[in-house]
Amino acid sequence: MGSESGGVRADGVQSLARGPTASIAYRCREGGTDLPGVMFLGGFRSDMTGTKAGSLDRFCAARDQRYLRFDYQGHGASSTAFEACTIGLWRDDALAMLDQVAYGPQILVGSSMGAWIALLAALARPARVAGLVCIAGAVDFTEALLWPRLGVERQAALMAEGALRIPSAYDPEGYVITRALIEEGRSHLLLGSAIDLAAPVRLLHGMADPDVPWQHSLRLAAALTGGDVVVTLVKDGDHRLSRPQDLARLDAAIEELSVSPRP
What is the gyration radius of the CA atoms in the chain, in angstroms? Predict the structure, then answer.
């Protein structure tokens, strides 16, 4: 992988500058060139140290397959206050990783919100994408899932105050949602029309997911124009799909998509 980084820390984390003050933290594993690289895109308020990200690192290492994971701005070890971030900024972070760190064809693996970001990146750089794996894909989640769940009163409060803290099962302090996140997200919605993407796509979704209904993946599958789209529903699977059997399904999807890179 090529990079324009700010050096490597003792723990292997590197940094890519994003303007005069911002930066993205990332880890990359070198590998052979017989297989496309794998690039992991985490979910909302997640980082590159999670279970799926670490499992993929071990899987790719065993196969000598290049692997890249990173923290969006406002997440993990990257810069920038979370409240200053938007869907468009995170998409641009992903494109910076594709353009300046990764090389060659990539399999984009997006978890939850990361599936939305991966699709946006794939639409912007279709020639770089060998395939996509979407895990509990929360495409358009700001509008299709988050906004209606706020209810009328909290919607009004968010619009008036500019930010609102909401409870979360994943953080005892809850999450701060900004008006900018909702409004800017509306310029990146995908499910209202056909998603013109030819790359093969694998959609993995737990039917016991309390956060993103599994029907959301069926809606995504219907919107994708490519013919090689496969949906796998796990009846007892939760949102994270991080159990050993879930990780094995993820590994199998990547192996299936790992054809030789185009010349």
Answer: 18
